[in-house]
Sequence to fold (176 residues):
Amino acid sequence: MPVLRQIALLGNPVLRTPARPVPFPLSDEVRELIDDMLATMREADGVGIAAPQVHQSLAIFIVAPRPNPRYPDAVEGPPIVAINPEIVERSAEMVRGWEGCLSIPGLRGEVPRHRRILARYQDVRGEHVVREFEDFPARIFQHEDDHLRGVVFLDRMDDLRDLACEREYARRVAKG
Ligand code: NI
Fold:
């Protein structure tokens, strides 16, 4: 049975520490960690989570897009578990979009991201995957990949005036 893990909050050094690569085959501990990350992300209503956010400095994250008010057309698919990921190409085109983070509760910020990326990672069996992401899934991938490098979305904002408390964000997004 998966266990809910405690989420590291902004200010915790683990969020600023580059994550270590994960060796294959995966150990039982790492398999349990991945199951627990999924459960913890779902419980917190997140669309992604990275291992450092549950106090494990390992290069693993989950991307799990689903429709939300900002991305009503987001396609809900099976969660992607990305191990030892690397973004190998980034589109010149940037798009701004609202992001939140389980490690930064209560805040949302408008963050510029590459609209399209080409990423390489390993799945849970150790198979190498090369895959293109665009729009919302690309945004989540970049956000989670940052977590493995000790970067949070606040660092990617070009204007901190585009930061909002969740209640104000909800009001703004409702207005469109
Ligand atoms: Ni985050």
Summary: Strands lie at 48-50, 60-63, 80-90, 94-99, 107-114, 116-122, 128-134, 163-165. The CA atoms of residues 8 and 55 lie 6 Å apart. DSSP finds four helices and eight strands in the chain. The mean pLDDT is 94.
